[in-house]
Design a protein that fits this description.
heterodimer, A: Rossmann fold, 6-stranded mixed beta sheet, 4-stranded antiparallel beta sheet, 10 strands, globular, B: 322 residues, mainly alpha
């Protein structure tokens, strides 16, 4: 791993008395497909929020694309090429699917305060419609995001992360609440991602997670428990104890 | 031409006929007033609808534009149009300042901060002698083309109409541009917008400043129309009046602002003579509208249209989900 896309060192975050993330060291290489697993409360979403900048660390450092971003704003991390989704969909409910994706394309480009049309807008809208097509919403572009079904909102959620063409894509439980068919099409879409894009994925659904991931990081009570290939994770006694012996979830 | 184009055009044509059809009294006391109060209410509707910010500072901003212009005209003998433009610049400046102060908070806290800013503005103008103190500023000259709005209200009416139509068209247009779309995005989910790379507070602040511009234009028009302005124009009761107009019309529909202002002005003008309990009637009508249609009068209109459409043709088939 000479050129990691993400490198965290001693990353910790306390919320009052709770140690949500505890001294985590992690490196993710360019183009990697990494799953972050762990039972509820393992610190996965907090870990995502730390990397994305939504939450500031209590301790430790975060490097994205070789730059120290520990104190960098969310906005600047996004401009470096970080895209993310949220555990529960955060779509712009009052705007159409196309406008949602248009804003996602524009987000990393600037001109956010422009009250006039620009020549490049047509190209951005084209891109927005192409992304809609890619996440399976091609015939829903004119619909308000707020009136999409749960599954469609999950699709749009991924579209919002994909639209700016991120180098690092972080998906927080993309399969949550999806039907079996929707999970399969999600898996296909993730497998079809550009090889150059690095993917980090939190997922409870092992069918999706282990089909997509080539390396797996296991978190338990905020700390890094284990790192390995999907096969190693499947074979690990510790993992079985946590998932099957303790509170099973998922 | 599609009905979507014809209806607004027809409304503008009908509005343009008002001074020819109605009396001078109606044109001045009801129609002109409804237009500039509607514009003030639209500044609130714009912020609420596009930005999710229900601001109670809009009468304050109206006052800033009105008082600053009145002082420039009366004390400094400035040309009314130049004074109006300078006053609008001051008003937008305060809009940025007030916006920066209030845009960190949301919901009830935003409401309280903007109320406080509105009240501070009121007390400032009520107590500072160079703005006339409690008396306010009288004898404000209007631009040449408006002349005396009392003896000939038509030019004032057309000025207010042009400003209102312009403001409406501008807001609708900018609403579809990156600035307006992103403002709506911030309204819907600031966390998501931040993760997409937007500056949430700055965007809200500039949105607030745009709202201040609308309120400021209303303040300029209102002060020309009355040829005076006093702190009573922007007190807490006026703030509530403006909120009532916006809610009666439909807080989340831009055109609702003018509908609400017209309804309010009609009641204000014609029920005061009939009853001494004007405020009671307004309150009852306000409650009745909210009970029947939380989206105000324009909400009723929309519901009626949807009803007709449902009767005329069957509901569209729900499209299959992906």
């Amino acid at each position: 791993m000479s050129d990691p896309v993400l490198r965290v060192r001693g990353l910790s975050r306390r919320f009052g008395g709770v140690q949500a993330v505890d001294d985590v060291d992690l490196e993710v290489a360019r183009g990697e497909r990494r799953a972050v697993l762990g039972p509820n409360g393992a610190g996965k979403s907090t870990f995502f929020n730390l990397v994305a900048g939504d939450v500031a660390p209590s301790d430790g450092t975060i490097e994205l694309f070789g730059r120290d971003v520990t104190r960098m704003s969310v906005r600047r991390r996004v401009r470096l090429g970080l895209g993310r989704t949220y555990q529960s969909s955060r779509v712009l409910g009052g705007l159409s699917v196309e406008d949602n994706l248009f804003l996602a394309v524009l987000g990393t480009q600037g001109g956010h305060f422009r009250p006039l049309p620009a020549g490049a807008d047509a190209r951005r809208r084209e891109r927005a419609r192409a992304v809609a097509e890619r996440v399976g919403l091609g015939d829903r572009t004119a619909v308000d995001a707020g009136s999409l079904s749960h599954g469609e909102q999950r699709q749009l959620e991924i579209g919002l992360a994909l639209a700016p063409d991120p180098q690092l894509l972080m998906l927080d439980e993309p399969a949550a609440g999806l039907s079996r068919a929707e999970r399969q099409s999600l898996t296909r879409m993730l497998l079809g991602l550009d090889e150059a894009v690095t993917l980090i994925l939190i997922e409870h659904d092992m069918d999706v997670a282990l089909a997509v991931a080539r390396r797996v990081t296991m978190l338990h009570q905020g700390a890094l428990l284990l790192e390995g290939t999907p096969d190693e994770i499947r074979a690990s006694r510790q993992v079985h104890e946590i998932y099957l012996g303790g509170a099973r979830d998922g | 031409m599609t009905p979507r184009r014809i209806v607004p055009l027809a409304i503008v044509v009908l509005l343009a006929l008002v001074p020819l059809v109605f009396s001078d009294y109606f044109t001045g006391a009801v129609a002109s007033k409804a237009l500039y109060l509607g514009l003030a209410a639209a500044s609130l509707t714009f912020l609420a609808g596009y930005g999710g910010m229900v601001s109670l500072a809009q009468t304050g901003l109206y006052g800033i534009a009105g008082f600053v212009m009145a002082r420039f005209i009366v004390t400094n003998g400035m040309d009314p149009v130049v004074a109006a433009l300078l006053a609008l610049a001051v008003c937008v400046g305060f809009g940025v300042f007030y916006g920066a102060l209030s845009c960190r908070s949301e919901g009830i806290y935003f409401l309280m901060i903007t109320l406080a800013l509105g009240v501070i503005t009121y007390y400032f103008f009520a107590q500072v002698p160079s703005f006339g103190g409690h008396e306010g500023i009288n004898g404000v000259r209007t631009p040449g083309w408006i002349g005396d709005p009392i003896s000939d209200p038509a030019p004032m009416y057309y000025t207010a109409l042009v400003c209102s139509v312009g403001a409406y068209a501008l807001v609708r247009f900018v609403g579809g541009m990156p600035f307006g779309l992103a403002l709506q995005g911030v309204r819907d989910d600031p966390v998501r917008m931040r993760a997409l790379g937007y500056r949430i507070r700055l965007h809200r602040t500039l949105g607030f400043a745009a709202g201040a511009l609308l309120a400021g234009v209303a303040g300029v028009l209102g002060t020309w129309h009355e040829t005076r302005i006093s702190p009573g124009t922007i007190d807490v009761a006026s703030t509530i009046q403006l909120l009532v107009m916006a809610v009666i019309g439909g807080l989340y529909r831009l055109e609702g602002a003018w509908v609400g202002a017209l309804a309010y002005t009609l009641l204000d003008t014609y029920t005061r003579g009939l009853t001494g309990r004007f405020e009671t009637w307004i309150a009852l009508i306000f409650l009745a509208i909210l009970v029947v249609s939380p989206d105000g009068i324009t909400g009723l209109w929309q519901a009626a249209r949807d009803g007709v459409r449902r009767v005329r043709r069957p509901a569209p088939r729900a499209e299959g989900a992906g």
